[in-house]
Structures are given as structure tokens and as C-alpha cells.
Amino acid sequence: MTSCFLYILENKNKEHYTGITKLSPQERLLKHNRKEVYSTKLGTPWRIIYFQKYKDYKEARKREKQIKAWHGSTTLKRFLRKAAGSSNGRTQPFGGWYLGSSPSPAALRKIDKFGGVK
Question: Dihedral angle at the C-alpha atoms of 5, 6, 10, 11, nearest 10 degrees?
């Protein structure tokens, strides 16, 4: 089984995109911002506001469908607020990480050190 990531992106217009990938979230973000993904090429630049690792594609896809069903609702807004967590934005709600708009290499190393994803 290959692990998979669910991620949520946000652009400067506060539009959101939810997706899943077998790449690292950072690699996938690069593809979005290079306009290699049809669904998001008009909204660049994007930033990762949430991601979570799943043990397999099926599990990630199930969660992706649930989150996409919330589109535009207060449930999605509540989820995103909780995902942002504390004032520094680097807490671990729902087992996911919020990296902020431009995570430093130190923040990425810290996530890996404490059991997060690389």
C-alpha cells in the first residue's frame, strides 16, 4: 500500500482547492503553481493551508469527497479554522499540519522530527 495525502490549497482570492496526491504536498503545490494542473491554473499562486497523510488512496479519496461536499458551507469554514489551530498556525489538529503561506526549511524539518511527514 502506498500512502497518500489529502491537501487543501488557498489562493489570494480566498478560493480553495481540495485534492489528493501520492506526491509530497510540497511537490504537488509546485505543480499547481507551475500551472500544470488544469483545475487550478487560473488561480495561481496557491499555498497549502492543510494536509493530512492517509495509509492508502481509498481512505484519502473518501475524506476528499466528504470535504468537497462541504464546499461553500460553514462546515468547511469551521474545518479550516480548526485546521489552522493556534496563533502560530503549526499545531497538529486532525493529524494534519498547517504550514502557513511559506514554510521555512526549519519548520519542515521540525514537522519531520516530530512524526509529521517530509
Answer: 60
